[in-house]
Here is the input.
Amino acid sequence: MSELIDPFGRKIDYLRISVTDRCDFRCTYCMDEDVSFLAREHILSLEEIVFVAQTFIAMGTKRIRITGGEPLVRKNILWAIEQIANTPGLDELTITTNGSQLAKMAPALYNAGVSRINISLDTLKAKRFYQLTRRDKFQQVIDGIESAAQLPFKRLKLNSVILKGRNDDEIYALAEFALSRGLDISYIEEMPLGIIHDHDRAATYMSSDDVIANLEQTYRLTPSTMKTGGPTRYYQVEGYQNRIGTISPHSHNFCDTCNRVRLTAEGRLLLCLGNEHSKDLKSLLRSHPNDHQLLRDGIIEALALKPQQHHFNLDETPQILRFMSATGG
Ligand code: SAM
Ligand code: SF4
Here is the structure.
């Protein structure tokens, strides 16, 4: 039974954990090239992360997603993944990754108990990959996807952020790449998280409806009732087993069904991606190590702060100054 019900009656049974704000890529919509990262002492230790995760599980959390920054560049992350995945009460442990480490880590992730992986891929062109991520690791990511696809994960999904004029000409090619390999794919609308200098987010905005209209030129799509705990709206694709989804923070607000909270790399419990309401769990953990009860009380207190919804507006200067990488996407 979940102890976590927010002031609007929503049951919170999904926790996303950012295990690091660091990353081996610099995706243009996510961060600038010269972004500064948190000092190591400000980041939760892996033991602290496991302690928070296990406290949430004892309070009724059923799903945990490990994310970042790039979660797979954190040293010894497999240890923490294994500890969390094997905690009784948890239904599934999933991760979101840029894929750069998957070629070498996919088997270990499977053995550690990861059931589903979301892999970010915005283009199938090596040169454009470099332009979008500022790193020359296209083939490494493709090899990582192919390695993961060889293993019996419950589900693999590509995540593609579509920017008008940058990669919207690859919407169909990305779908074909995913579906032909037995992967799902979600298209994400860019969110105004953090100030970036590469482009004007309002100018590159592409709505999920436009993405779907583009795909419908080739595929027959039927809205699906499938839910996986996240904000994705899925479509069944005629002739394929796998699904196409959209994540539309602008055009289809999904706050009424929100079931999740986020633990940032520095140990803040963030109640909503699009608001700053949060509680500092790190100081609780460090002043009273191993005190499950105090942490439980802190989490319940934090939940009372959960706002009803986000208010993203691309025409305003971003209200949210933190980057997606610090928060955990
Ligand atoms: N590094 C990992 C990755 O890229 O998958 C995990 C963290 S990343 C922050 C999680 C997801 O957030 C990725 O799919 C990425 O494309 C997406 N993302 C990052 N910044 C975004 C933004 N401003 N708007 C929408 N999605 C964003
Ligand atoms: Fe790194 Fe993921 Fe952000 Fe790209 S989207 S810079 S891979 S954290």
In short: The first strand starts at residue 14 and ends at 18.
